[in-house]
């Protein structure tokens, strides 16, 4: 009985070890982006570089991490960088680590009696890593070198010591060097916390039981996912959607899904070629969206590890939007193209397993970056803003939430006004932004800021300005993103992706997209319409235009 239960105990122990790594990272970080928004992720890999456990953090980080770990270890071997006991390696090169320059990955090989038994790894989004604009995600970059400082794998920790000099150029390139040092040390602390817990597992249960748990975790997840794939009635589907380039040009993402027995192939042939803008999605990011959607549909109660993906293959043509060539810029691809990729994958799978697929969410991370000088010091603020989730089978979409490839928190107003020369002027759900349906989409968010410093550079990056979040099975589209610059009493509508100089007293108001509706609006219950009106989610005008039931006299008789 011990040997049937023990591997499960250890598997759960590993998951909570990954969670504790994340807590250590968050609690010891300096930047509001990590400390408050939890823009970080942690995971554990076996000595064959296979994922064995991860915390419930950010899909775009987690799904790319195994791909990034494998490429980083290979780079170290080729360049004779020895991964010795108590070493840690840092890397942010997207073509090695798998996301974009802001995401620094810190890797720790864990030794026991002279052999590597596993790898501990984490990623954290650093609010500024240099480049043309504060926040380091530029709309004008054409290569990664214009997006910030590139860190190829380098040893930053050895035998208990932080090797600051090895990463000094990275630190010096940032507008907020103190935060960078604190956040890197927090990433180191996360891996140390993981090492402590895994050492406890070995001490308590032995190395062989740990290795057995690694293997059985892979096998269990593989078996569970395969059983669900084999039950599918339809074996192929196709979908396409569009992400909007800096100049408004439409960039197509095409995906085909083919299922053969228990094997699934995702093919991006027909997708637009790579661009000269930062919209490109490095292959690690492309994988992360596939893994996220795959687990939503087939692994809802399955532990996430490499075994869950062992029957999944992904192909994206080299030189395409979803698999660009070095050194094309990829900063926006990580945050926006990844979101559209998950949308188009859900759309394709709606033909294969429709009962599990929601309507489109707001479809953007809504990246806001502002920075400059204030009282003689440099500052840089970064956050993402939530959207409306798509309506689902039997349920409305969630209002004002970070969806799909992001899983971060908001930045508390108190933290913003304490740490930056900004005043939050509004923060509320956006009325009438939801897509109507039997089950409506979630409402987007209205969030506004006023500048207190004399001058600052603002960069805003979003999507779903032209192509609204789609409804499904008769549900209607959600509202698109809207951005308004308020200066000297004049309101100016801004594009979804832009940079601008803000002056003292200027205001920016962001109205994020709502989720699409699920099933026709005619099926929505009277009480739900009334509740939405009462809560301010929709107006009477919206109700009249979308719900025939609202226009019947018996509804108005209710008062």
Plain-language structure description:
The structure is a single chain. The chain is of the alpha+beta class and 559 residues long. The protein has two domains: 217 residues, no CATH class; 202 residues, no CATH class. It contains 13 helices and 20 strands. The strands form four sheets. The protein has a seven-stranded antiparallel beta sheet with strand order 2-1-5-4-3-6-7, sandwiched between helices. Strands 14-15-20-17-18 form a five-stranded antiparallel beta sheet. It has a four-stranded mixed beta sheet with strand order 8-9-10-11. The longest helix has 29 residues. It is globular and about 80 Å long. The chain starts with a helix and ends with a helix.
Could you outline the blueprint of secondary structure elements for this entry?
Layout (H helix, E strand, L loop, with lengths): L1 H27 L3 H4 L4 E7 L4 E4 L4 H20 L9 E4 L2 H4 L5 E10 L2 E11 L28 E5 L2 E2 L5 H6 L3 H29 L1 H24 L5 E9 L5 E11 L2 E5 L15 H16 L13 E4 L15 H19 L17 E8 L2 E8 L28 H7 L2 E8 L15 E7 L3 E7 L20 E6 L2 E5 L2 E7 L3 E5 L14 H10 L4 H7 L6 H4 L3
Parallel strand pairs: 10-11
Antiparallel strand pairs: 1-2, 1-5, 3-4, 3-6, 4-5, 6-7, 8-9, 9-10, 12-13, 12-16, 14-15, 15-20, 16-19, 17-18, 17-20
Helix content class: 25-40%
Hey, roughly how much beta strand do the residues contain? 15-25%
| Count of distinct strands | 20
Count of DSSP-assigned helices? 13
Oligomer: single chain
How far is the N terminus from the C terminus? 64 Å
Q: Report strand order across the widest sheet.
A: 2-1-5-4-3-6-7
Sheet with most strands: 7 strands, antiparallel
Envelope shape? globular
Radius of gyration: 24 Å
Tell me, rounded to a whole number, the average pLDDT. Answer: 96
Total domains = 2
- Low-confidence segments, given as residue ranges, are none
Structural class: alpha+beta
């Amino acid at each position: 009985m011990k040997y049937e239960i023990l591997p499960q105990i250890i598997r759960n122990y590993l998951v909570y070890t990954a969670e504790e790594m994340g807590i250590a990272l968050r609690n010891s970080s300096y930047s509001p982006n990590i400390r408050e928004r939890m823009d970080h992720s942690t995971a554990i890999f076996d000595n064959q570089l296979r994922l064995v456990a991860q915390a419930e953090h950010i899909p775009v980080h987690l799904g790319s991490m195994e791909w990034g770990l494998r490429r980083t270890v290979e780079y170290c071997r080729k360049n004779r960088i020895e991964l010795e006991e108590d070493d840690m390696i840092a890397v942010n090169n997207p073509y090695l680590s798998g996301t974009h320059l802001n995401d620094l990955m810190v890797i720790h090989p864990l030794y026991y009696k002279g052999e590597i038994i596993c790898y501990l790894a984490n990623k954290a989004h650093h609010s500024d890593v240099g480049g043309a604009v504060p926040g380091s995600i530029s709309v004008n970059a054409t290569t990664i070198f214009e997006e910030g400082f590139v860190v190829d794998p380098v040893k930053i920790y050895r035998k208990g010591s932080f090797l600051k000099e090895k990463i000094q150029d990275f630190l010096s390139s940032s507008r907020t060097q103190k935060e960078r040092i604190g956040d890197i040390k927090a990433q180191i602390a996360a891996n140390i916390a993981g090492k402590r817990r895994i050492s406890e597992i070995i001490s308590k249960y032995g190395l062989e039981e740990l290795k057995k748990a690694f293997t059985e975790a892979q096998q269990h997840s593989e078996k569970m996912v395969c059983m669900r794939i084999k039950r599918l009635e339809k074996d192929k589907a196709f979908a396409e959607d569009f992400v909007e380039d800096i100049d408004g040009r439409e960039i197509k993402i095409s995906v085909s899904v083919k299922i053969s027995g228990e094997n699934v192939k995702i093919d991006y042939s027909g997708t637009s070629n790579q661009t000269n803008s930062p919209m490109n999605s490095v292959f690690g990011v492309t994988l992360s969206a596939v893994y996220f959607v795959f687990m939503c549909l087939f692994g809802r109660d399955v532990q996430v590890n490499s075994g869950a993906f062992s029957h999944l293959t992904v192909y994206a043509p080299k030189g395409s939007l979803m698999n660009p060539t070095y050194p094309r810029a990829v900063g926006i691809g990580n945050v926006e193209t990844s979101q559209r990729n998950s949308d188009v994958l859900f759309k394709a799978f709606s033909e294969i397993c429709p009962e599990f697929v929601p309507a489109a969410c707001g479809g953007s991370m809504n990246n806001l970056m502002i920075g400059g000088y204030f009282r003689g010091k440099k500052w840089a603020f970064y956050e993402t803003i939530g959207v409306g989730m798509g309506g689902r089978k039997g349920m409305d979409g969630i209002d004002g939430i970070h969806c799909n490839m992001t899983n971060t928190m908001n930045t508390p107003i108190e933290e913003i006004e304490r740490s930056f020369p900004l005043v939050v002027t509004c923060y509320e759900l956006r009325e009438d932004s939801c897509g109507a349906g039997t089950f409506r989409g979630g409402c987007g968010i209205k969030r506004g800021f006023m500048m207190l410093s004399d001058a600052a550079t603002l960069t805003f990056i979003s999507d779903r300005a032209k192509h609204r979040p789609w409804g499904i099975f008769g549900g209607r589209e959600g509202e698109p993103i809207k951005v308004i610059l308020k200066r000297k009493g004049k309101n100016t509508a801004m594009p979804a992706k832009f940079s601008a100089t803000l002056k003292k007293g200027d205001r920016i108001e962001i109205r994020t997209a709502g989720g699409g509706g699920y099933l026709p609006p005619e099926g929505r219950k009277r009480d739900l319409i009334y509740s939405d009106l009462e809560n301010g989610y929709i107006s009477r005008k919206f109700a009249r235009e979308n719900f025939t039931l609202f226009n019947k006299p018996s509804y108005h008789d209710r008062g």
